[in-house]
Amino acid sequence: MADKVKDEMSDKRILLIIGGGIAAYKSLLLIRVLAKRGIQTRAILTRAGTEFVTPLSVGALSGDKVYTDLFSLSDEAEMGHIELSRSADLVVVVPATADLMAKAANGLANDLASTTLLATDKRVLYAPAMNVRMWENAATVRNVETLRADGALFVGPEEGDMACGEFGYGRMAEPETIADAIESALAGVTDLDAMKPKSLAGKHVLITAGPTREPIDPVRYLSNHSSGKQGYALALACADLGAKVSLVSGPVDLTPPHGVEIINVETAQDMLKACESALPCDVFISVAAVADWRPRNTGIQKIKKDGKAVPPLELEETPDILKTLSSHKNRPTLVIGFAAETNDIIPHAQAKLAKKGCDWIVANDVSGDVMGGDENTMILVQTDNVDPWPKLSKREAAERLAAKIAAHFSKL
Ligand code: CTP
Question: d(Cα 341, Cα 362) in Å, to the nearest integer?
């Protein structure tokens, strides 16, 4: 089998553009992995890239000349940048730095790498690698969207510890994963996401996320510290498995995942209304930290200080969205609640399961820095089972829950 794949790929050649980032060392491993799979590599090393790997090591592994300088007369005489950009079946940028992607998205051409990206008529595959804040910056998000719309393919980045000491998205995909993506692209696949298993295809998943805001008057409100990260990660994980996802979100500072329908709301009442409008659905996951109480009377005008009495704040309970959907005439097949607890987590979660009438409760210990943090320690509580999970990133926890949901439907 491996030999068959090697034969099919043996006449394929990629042009590898090595950007300047700490992940550049992985490009050397990638060249070796590709050689084993019968794919030849010709490399361009950016000026910044030469700070991390040398032309000598790249050339020794690729067995070819390494191109580094746009204005080298000898290089241009041997092979001009236009020809270089077209002599391969696929152009692969590893690591794709924020700078290289920004140039490509905007058509800038001021060095060999960017000129090649502008001149090529071949598909381009980017393996981004950068600090999480740079990856999440609005400019990078915009540039990636532009490149995708222009037909570029992406592999990674992945979540994890980064060389800069931070944790999050931005770590470059591993060489084997990039090589798999290269093989798919060389085989003509134009949507790498479509290669992932779609075990939730045909299912409609409704998710609530973030806090709600309950107005006191036009300028003040009651709310909580929920960041929305866990709900957004779940929306992405379910969409990745092929589900149609509706995400009803309270006010958060997050970009909605690609391909997910987003419905923005402020209050618990609006969140309930949006959820009921999104029915019918197969799965409802109530991740939102819905405010439990709201002011009974909301001032139409800003309440003024008179320097004497503090205004009374009379509260009433907000509608319980999870409970309402659990007993709804259009009840989703699977209803999952979250339980934020600080003590006696399992007994409290079991009591909540019965009280709310849902099928599963995901209990999480919020006594630490879970709210706003990037990690979660969760316990999946079902009527007949309690399954404690290890501490996971919110992304990993979301993928695990999405896989559990898919497994549940496969058994029905
Ligand atoms: N929930 C809801 N509507 C509310 C309150 C909570 O849909 N008005 C949902 C949450 O999204 C979560 C579950 O109910 O899925 C449990 O929320 P939690 O805050 O842990 O529990 P409460 O019901 O608020 O009870 P308590 O605060 O007493 O623990």
Answer: 11
- Residue of the nearest CA to atom 21 in ligand 1? 339
Which residues are known to be catalytic?
164
Q: Are 291 and 318 in contact (CB under 8 A)?
A: yes
Q: Does residue 337 have its Cβ closer than 6 Å to ligand 1?
A: yes
pLDDT tens-place string over residues 104-143? 999 999 999 999 999 999 999 999 999 988 988 889 989 9
Question: Please, are residues 214 and 294 in contact by the beta-carbon 8 Å criterion?
Answer: yes
- 262 shares its domain with 179: no
Rounded to an integer, what distance in angstroms lies between the CA atom of residue 36 and that of residue 352? 55
Residue 304 lies in a domain: no
- Residue 319 Cα: closest atom of ligand 1: 8
Tell me: do 142 and 246 sit in the same domain: no
pLDDT tens readout for residues 253-311: 999 998 899 999 999 999 999 999 999 999 999 999 999 999 999 878 999 888 888 88
**Residue 16, CA distances (Å) to 56, 59, 68, 326 in order:** 15, 12, 12, 53
Q: Whose CA is nearest to atom 6 of ligand 1?
A: 290
Judge if the beta carbon of residue 362 lies within 6 A of ligand 1.
no
Report how far ligand 1's centroid is from the alpha carbon of 355 (Å): 11
User: Of the residues 195, 214, 242, which one is the last residue of a structural domain?
Assistant: 195
CA 288 / ligand 1 centre spacing (Å):
8
pTM as predicted: 0.67
Residue 343's domain spans which residues? 204-292+312-410
